[in-house]
Amino acid sequence: MAALEVDDDAGRTVALTAPAERVVALAPHIVELLYAVGAGERVVGALEGSDFPRAARDIPRVGSYRGIALEAIMAREPDLVVTWRSGTPRSVVTRLEALGVPVYASEPRRLTDVAGDLRDLGRLTGHAEAGARAAEAFEARLAAARQRLPETPRVFYQLGRHPLTTLGDDHIVTRAIRHCGGEPLFADRRVLVPEIGREALIEARPDVILAAAPDDDWQQAWQDDTLLPAVREGHLYTLDPDAISRPGPRLIQGVEQVCRALKRATPPS
Q1: Does residue 232 sit in helix, strand or coil?
Q2: How many CB atoms lie within 10 A of CB 253?
Q3: To bridge 34 with a disulfide, which of 39, 106, 230, 236 should be the other Cys (CB 3.0-4.6 Å)?
Q4: Do 229 and 110 meet the contact criterion of CB atoms below 8 Å apart?
Q5: From CA 125, how far away is CA 31, in angstroms rounded?
Q6: Residue 6 in contact with residue 104, Cβ under 8 Å?
Q7: Helix pair 128-145, 113-124: axis angle to 10 deg
Q8: Bigger pLDDT: 153 or 86?
Q9: What are the Cα distances from residue 171, in Å, to 96, 156, 267?
């Protein structure tokens, strides 16, 4: 009989007879979630790029974004594998399930989903109280960051430059922009990563342009596009790539960066 049961982000019930002691995490944000609930010492396998906190760099690797080795996962003798629902190949998940390995799918799409994953992974690893505390701290900062601005800035989030792409309505970054009082442009597109033409962007008249990057160099490419209000007014802002792009506990830092940027770009009432 299962001692622990939670529903993962795919809506499936994950049941364990005892807290997991050997966990393989198949995305960097999952590693961060596990460390945040105090279960870092139980992570016995991870993907390349799992670099936070610093101790995570020493975890044995079982693959990368280019491919995941099922044999390497099984060699770690996991009693729980935490997958990234949209990033882990379905073939890997199917084989793990066929081998009887419990699988939890993580896929935060709403901001509050991060807190849900913290609670679930805390329970599954025997750190329920720490998971609850981490979730509550995340939710408190999220509530404190929410803002309503005197004017609603039109915000373009630049994902790629060539071609020019952004994020659709179902992405957590789009929800962060709304949480901070902005209107995410092109959120009505039916794909998660829409490609945007220059004419469409000019017509949309963004007040703010955001991008995740290690420095501000990306802003230079926009300087001749003075038809865009964001460029004319100097409202181009750089976000920490790991904070805004990984749906883990540091996402709140990315949300706070977005909120500060939109507040700076909005004239006081």
Answers
A1: helix
A2: 16
A3: 39
A4: no
A5: 13
A6: yes
A7: 170
A8: 153
A9: 27, 14, 28
Relative orientation angle of helices 128-145 and 251-265, to the nearest 10 degrees: 10
State how far the Cα of 37 lies from the Cα of 55, in Å rounded to an integer.
Answer: 15
Beta bridge partners of 184: 155
Please write the tens of the pLDDT for every residue from 3-27.
Answer: 799 999 999 999 999 999 999 999 9
What phi and psi values does residue 82 have, to the nearest 5 degrees?
A: -105, 115
Q: How far apart are the first and last CA of the chain?
A: 60
Percent of the chain that is helix, strand, coil (3-state, to 5): 40, 20, 40
**CA gap 45, 205 in Å, rounded:** 46
Place of tokens 């622990």: 4
C-alpha 26/C-alpha 20 separation (Å) is 16
Residue 60 burial (CB count, 10 A): 12
Residue 161's nearest CA partner among 213, 203, 112 is 213
**Token representation of residue 236:** 């181009």
**DSSP letters spanning 78-114:** -SEEEEETTTS-HHHHHHHHHTT--EEEE---STTHH
pLDDT at 229: 97
Average pLDDT value for the chain: 95
Angle of CA points 100, 57, 95, to nearest 5°: 20
The pLDDT value given to residue 1: 47
Which among 230, 21, 10 has a CA at the least distance from the CA of 127? 21
Long-range CB pairs of 253-256, under 8 A, 24+ apart, other chains included: 254/173, 254/176, 255/111, 255/142, 255/145, 255/176, 255/179, 255/180, 256/141, 256/145
pLDDT at 2 over 80: no
